[in-house]
């Protein structure tokens, strides 16, 4: 199991703060750092916005474009270039199923489908309770353990079978 920094603040922020408050926080961040009208602060501001809102909705991107005086097309260009940024909401727990070649030949597609079935959700969209989203991803660098699933940023599961899928889901349901 690999350990990465846990990144739960953003979900907490989304749950307890209104959009208005989040915009206010973003405004404070821009002003306190003197980023207003600064085109080269775009990446830092996008990072902050995603941390606050959990993703980058259109109105947030328009606001940033306006505040930093960067054309909206350029803002979208940067957001789509970096995988880190997302314009769609994600679940509190993000399930990443590796669909790289080594995992695929060992049945990763059946695992991916099973997650979607169990959670009654489409790829890359959050479940109705916002708890999960399921994403197909490229090689996670653990091919010897194929097929591989990663949940959030720190939980790796190797040699996953479709029958393990309900168990994996219930672990996170219990944790909340
Ligand atoms: S192809 Fe899945 S971990 Fe490499």
From TrEMBL:
The keyword Iron-sulfur applies. Binds 1 [2Fe-2S] cluster. [2Fe-2S] cluster binds at residues 98, 103, 139, 143. Its cofactor is [2Fe-2S] cluster. Transmembrane segments: none annotated. One of its GO terms (molecular function) is metal ion binding. InterPro entries: NADP_DH_HndA-like, NuoE-like, NuoE_dom, NuoE_N, Thioredoxin-like_sf. Keywords: 2Fe-2S, Iron, Iron-sulfur, Metal-binding. Signal peptide: none annotated. Belongs to the complex I 24 kDa subunit family. This is NADP-reducing hydrogenase, subunit A.
